[in-house]
Amino acid sequence: MVGSVELPNRLFVAPMAGVTDRPFRQLCKSLGAGYAVSEMVTSRKDLWHTLKTSRRADHTGENAPISVQIAGTDAAMMAEAAAYNIERGAQIIDINMGCPAKKVCNKWAGSALMQDEPLALQIVEAVVAACAPHGVPVTLKMRTGWSQQHKNAVRIARAAEQAGIAMLTVHGRTREQGYKGHAEYDTIAAVKAAVRVPVVANGDITTPERARDVLAYTGADAIMIGRAAQGRPWIFGDIAHFLATGEHRAQPLTQQVKRWLLEHLHDHYGLYGEFAGVRTARKHIGWAVRALPDGERFRAHMNTLDSCDSQVQAVTDYFDALSLSHDRLPWVDLSTAEDDTDALAAEETAGASACAAN
Ligand SMILES: Cc1cc2nc3c(=O)[nH]c(=O)nc-3n(C[C@H](O)[C@H](O)[C@H](O)COP(=O)(O)O)c2cc1C
Predict the structure, then answer these.
(1) Given this model, what pLDDT does residue 341 score?
(2) 104 within ligand 1 shell (Cβ under 6 A)
(3) Does the beta carbon of 171 lie inside 6 Å of ligand 1?
(4) Separation of alpha carbons 328 and 274, rounded Å
(5) pTM for the structure as a whole
(6) How many CA atoms within 13 Å lie on the side-chain side of 170?
(7) Contact 68/92 with Cβ under 8 angstroms?
(8) Per-residue confidence (pLDDT) for residue 358, from 0 to 100
């Protein structure tokens, strides 16, 4: 439960700027995720009408609950952004205190807020006050702290709970770490022990075993998965099956993966149109084929295609050919796959500051 909103399970999709748009959230939800937070929407009013922001705030046909993440450094503006998103269908408002981007809309925001606890609390109070009349719960996503020497997640969690936050998500890294090193779960366990509201553990959960272990170690009420769901949105169903039975379910059929990807592409083009759609779909297709046989060659070829039809045809041909030799998708150990988090972090930074660009 988040406030009065009931969630179907404890496997959540992490908000990822430039990735977790409505088509991707829908896909993850249809494959076992219980909850997905939409990408950060700027609290700057002058940007609300832009194409990027309105695409981000598009919840057409999305399974409830609709949760929208907001970020910013001005309490009054954040409160307004919350109210605006509620008008547009948000049933849960999430405050982003976990983004390592140096600048969000030319101001320090995201996890930089963890360094200024009074301001962080002011923002929480203002957003809670704006949401309460609508019965909309407010959640908070943060890191373990500012730096190794300043791990203040527990203190912020306690204060946020006092101020009326209904759920807390903790990514087990400090802001200083960016995406480097490993997530640690001791701080998440300490946050869980310090508050009564539900706590969500996040960071480096890439396998069903890790999901089980993180849940057990931290005592968290739920887990949130980001990068491991890229190109592998069925991971939520895999984890649910493993948690329920202690066994791994079979890899999905190659033809089934093709159908999921084609459906995703269809939704994706519908939201973005052909020009932007083909280009932004490349990363999703690339993630889907990374580490699969001939995946790199296919990815390079696919990046040269610039129409929906040719992209769809190439994906169809690739998976049809693969299914001749592999009835089920070959198993890929992504925990040892090449780490592209620097690129991803750059993307997050770009996503976070994109509001300033248009
Ligand atoms: C490309 C990318 C974009 C992200 N954008 C956001 C964001 O907008 N808001 C946010 O709170 N976290 C954002 N994150 C952080 C994730 O929500 C998550 O906390 C982090 O990736 C750790 O989880 P993981 O190891 O399962 O990926 C982003 C991460 C990535 C890789």
Answers:
(1) 55
(2) no
(3) yes
(4) 31
(5) 0.92
(6) 38
(7) yes
(8) 26
Name the 3-class secondary structure at 189: helix
Q: Does residue 225 line the site of ligand 1, with CB under 6 A?
A: yes
Who's near 179: CB < 8 A, 6+ residues apart? 100, 173, 341, 342, 344, 345
Six token digits for residue 346: 């750059």
In the numeric block, the tokens 């407010």 are attached to: 138
Sort strands 92-97 and 11-13 into parallel, antiparallel or unpaired.
unpaired
d(CA 334, CA 339): 9
Contacts of 256 (CB under 8 A, 6+ apart): none
Q: What are phi and psi of 8, to 5 degrees?
A: -70, -25
- Give the catalytic positions in this structure: 99
Ligand 1 atom, smallest distance to 171 CA:
19
Q: How far apart are CA 4 and CA 15, in angstroms?
A: 22
Confidence of residue 40 (pLDDT cuts 50, 70, 90): low
Preceding amide of 65 cis, omega within 30:
yes
Q: Ligand 1 test: best mutation among 348, 349, 353, 355, most atoms within 8 Å of CB?
A: 348
Rounded to whole angstroms, how far apart are CA atoms 52 and 274?
15
Distance CA 161, CA 139 (A): 10
